[in-house]
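ok so for the tutorial part 2 we go from a plain amino acid sequence to predicted structure tokens. step 1 is just haveing the sequence, like this:
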Amino acid sequence: MSNTVNPLFLLINFNRALQRLILALMLAVALPATAATTRDAMTHFFEANTGDLRAELGDARAAGKKAILLMYEQEGCPACLYMKQHVLNRVDVQALYRRHFTIFTIDLFGAVPLKDFKGRDITEKAFATEAKVRATPTFVFHDLDGTEVMRITGAVHDVEEFKLLAEFVASGAYRSRPFAEHRRLYLKKGG
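step 2 — the prediction. this is what the tokens look like for a chain of 191 residues:
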């Protein structure tokens, strides 16, 4: 018996180890480049709520925004938490939405007083009830006259769909077709 190692065996194992090393290096370089940059959604997606939605309409108009977006939420809502941790925390989403919209949260059961779009004094809970919001999260876009133009209830499927929703509202496409049709056309084009 010989204690020699077959050179072909060494070469095959060396090639496998080299392939694994190259793959690991490629992943190490590629992941940071493709990973989305994130930051706190409450600070960077939402704006501080002044409690006066009517005044916010004027500020949004003056800032050249397309609409006001209200996210109705409630404590302990898993879909709200998902949206904040996986969609609304992304810098690209924050930049897109902050460019086109003024964005606030409304607590479905909140006792916080506010002025609605007509200037009436009301609580967040009463405002949500009048808006017929029953589930969270609910995203409601209002034009700059305070009229609801688009509503999505529940967490969106993914970041790309949420970005498509922003484009849909900002472009005014909601005036001519439902979002489901817009999304279908977008996907058909290879989006």
